[in-house]
Each structure stands twice: as structure tokens, then as C-alpha cells.
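Entry for the shared binder. Reason: the reviewer on the internal report wants the predicted structure included alongside the sequence.
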Amino acid sequence: MGNSFVILVPTCDTHAAIAGISLRLLNRYWSNHPPVHVLHDAVAPDVAGLSGIELHECGRETRSPWLQRMVRFLTCREEELFLLMLDDYAMCGRARTELIAEGERVMREDASVGLFPLCWYPAARREPRSGSRGIVTLHGTPVLLQAAIWRRSWFLELASKMDPRTSAWGFETAATQLAKQCRRDICSADIPEPRYLGGHLVDGFAKGDWPVPYHNLMHRGEPVETDEGFLRDEGLAFPSRGMGDTVAKVAQATGVARVVGAIETITGRECGCVRRRRELNRRVPY
């Protein structure tokens, strides 16, 4: 893909440790990825030993909100395309580079395309795109911040009509409405609708067949505890938020957690570990 195409990962102090996990999995499952630029606050993610990643300190989040820092960075860049990945997008499988390359080709050859999601995207209608096998144009779709290739000029056009203090979640809502006036096509690979596992919007669908398969490690500012097993299998772990998380890790390492799980299965009753863990985190936070 060359150096004319970059990956942009914005993060903040409270998510820097999560971003470090996601960046390690990015290197693991997409070893020849394009250059990565990480926009962070005072706390930088741990990228020791990782290649192709450049850190950019943006100051305190209160002085440089999410959208403002994105605009400041993109205004100074020359690349017309960038892949936006939020800090908790932890890859769980090999990147389908042929689909990513096809999305890049479509966007370079057709300036009417403003966004190419690298995932399954909800839409009222999917129309095969002429001259692009396996690519569809999405109609009646929201603008979401799932992993996607963005056209820089369209992102900046949408952003120019928003409050600079807009958050990532606020951007989705505002961009969905603004896209009705600032029209660009949204295209994607023609991926069958995945199995719904339960959860929030696109986050609740199975992601294994996406061009960039990943887990959302965070929800509403809290780690998704059901992903602990996934991280453990990858040789990683959520950072401890408090004493409850530390106790849970000790229980897992010593095998106590497995015994408790077996008892729960036999009796059909929860042991209350999750409740006690959260209470300990609240009482003794780190």
C-alpha cells in the first residue's frame, strides 16, 4: 500500500494501556501494515519493540478534544486516504489485505467515495458497484467509527460543520446527519450479514470474516470482561483498574477461577465474584 496510506489511532490517558494492547495485536495480525500514527495525551501507549508506529503527543484531552486533535493532525498531512482505528480495536485474526487493497483502489479511482468500512455495515440497501467486483455501494447507512478507510477531505468537510469539542461518539451522530447534505458514497466489500452475538450496534456482530477482524475491548469506558479469555490466549491482559481486578487475576492464575466456574455450572447459581470484583475496584482503585 505504500507510504501514501496511513493508519490513524487516536487515544487518551485513560485508554493508553488499552491502545498499547491493540497496537501489539495489529502488529501480530497485520505485520506489513501501513505506517501507524498514534495521537495521545500526556500518557503514551507502550509500543516498545513494535515497528512502524509513530507517537504524537497532543497535550491534555481537555485542551485538545477528540475531533480537534483529529482535524489538527489531518490538516497537516498530504495523504488523501487514511485508515481510522479507535484505540480499543484489538485484531483477532489476519487482515484480509486483498479486500483492503481493493477498497483503497476504489477510493483512489473514484473521488465520489468518501468512506470504505473494513467491516460489515448496516444499510437499507446494498447495490453492486459497477467495475468493482465484490464491492457494494451502501444506501441508507449511518456513519460509524468502525475500522474504515476515510477520504481525508470528506472527514474534514464533515468536521468543519461540527463543534471542535465533539467526541468520537458525538461525531458519529453528527456525521450521519451531515452526510445527507455533504454527500459522498459509502462502499464496502460485499460481506454477508454476520451472526449477531448480542451487544451494541455493530459491536454485537461476529467479526471473524471482516477485512479487519477485531474485538472492541471497551464499552462505555469500561473493559469488556468477556474478552479477558481472548486476551489471555493472546498472552495479554487488561490493565488492573483496582484491587478487584488483581484478585481476579490471581484467582485465574492459581486455578481458583476454574473451580468456581465449575461449581457455578453444577449448581446453576452465580457465586457473586463479578459483583465483589467491581465493589473491590470501587473501594480500592488504582
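Summary line for the report: Residues 243-283 form one domain.
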